[in-house]
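Researcher: We plan to redesign the surface later, but first we want a full-length starting point. Tokens attached.
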């Protein structure tokens, strides 16, 4: 997408108040959070797979999952990081790209080879254990990346929209971008919603196979204006339903970890959530 790799802004945020109402479950050997709709209000045979940002299954993610459930969607949030999410407001001396390549202990990476099977297993669990037939996926920041499949490279493939960054930025020494791709559409996802996505390539966006909605921040070094505009061109060429909403006065991460005491940020977060629900109501139910 026309989006850059993750950076420090992907880890900064505010913990929101509230009491999660879901429960802990297992996705294979991995932890997960399940939010269930009120009795009689669930959309039949339908669920949302919530792919979180690098902070993992923390309180804000749980509360958002609960909100999707309140709107009729069984919602599953798998632990994509094997109990090793980035703490709120950062990793101290470690940069985010080192964490992705090696994990916080240097021994447990969060690359495609590790993350991909977790997402595939989560889709399997929704289908086999919960009888789900229609799955929508929500991705925030890192989670937005794992929504997209990556086609096999070819000489005619378009150039990446996130070229190698300058050496003074926090995401230098990048591994190949496909390291962070989870091929999810082909594994059973029908509809997608992403907010402030990171690390998405042009080829990945062009290869989507279902409707996609994007919530973008006005100020975002990861998904800046030029990449947002390029994404619009690519999405138009897919001939699939798409939506890109731009929210003024907010920055990267607003849809999950903004400061709710700020009126502008609070409104934008709420509207981005409503955008997601409306998109699923239109294209998934």
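Model: Full-length starting sequence:
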């Amino acid at each position: 997408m026309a989006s850059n790799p993750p950076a420090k802004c992907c880890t900064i945020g505010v913990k929101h108040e509230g009491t999660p109402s879901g429960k802990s479950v297992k996705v294979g050997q991995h932890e997960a959070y399940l939010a269930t709709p009120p009795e009689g209000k669930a959309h039949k045979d339908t669920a949302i797979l919530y792919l979180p940002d690098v902070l993992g299954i923390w309180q804000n993610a749980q509360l958002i999952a609960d909100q999707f459930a309140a709107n009729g969607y069984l919602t599953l949030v798998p632990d994509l990081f094997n109990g090793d999410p980035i703490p709120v407001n950062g990793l101290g001396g470690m940069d985010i790209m080192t964490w992705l390549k090696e994990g916080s202990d240097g021994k447990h990476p969060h690359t495609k080879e590790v993350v991909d099977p977790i997402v595939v297993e989560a889709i399997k669990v929704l289908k086999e254990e919960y009888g789900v037939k229609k799955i929508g996926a929500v991705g925030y920041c890192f989670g937005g990346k794992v929504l997209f499949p990556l086609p096999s490279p070819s000489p005619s493939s378009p150039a990446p929209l996130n070229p190698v960054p300058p050496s003074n930025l926090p995401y230098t020494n990048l591994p190949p971008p496909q390291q962070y791709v989870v091929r999810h559409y082909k594994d059973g996802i029908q509809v997608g919603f992403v907010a402030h996505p990171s690390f998405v390539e042009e080829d990945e966006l062009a290869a989507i196979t279902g409707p996609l909605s994007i919530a973008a921040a006005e100020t975002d070094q990861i998904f800046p204006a030029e990449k947002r505009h390029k994404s619009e061109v690519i999405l138009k060429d897919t001939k699939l339903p798409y939506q890109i909403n731009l929210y003024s006065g907010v920055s990267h991460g607003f849809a999950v970890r903004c400061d709710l005491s700020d009126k502008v940020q609070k409104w934008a977060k709420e509207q981005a959530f409503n955008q997601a629900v409306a998109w699923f109501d239109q294209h998934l139910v």
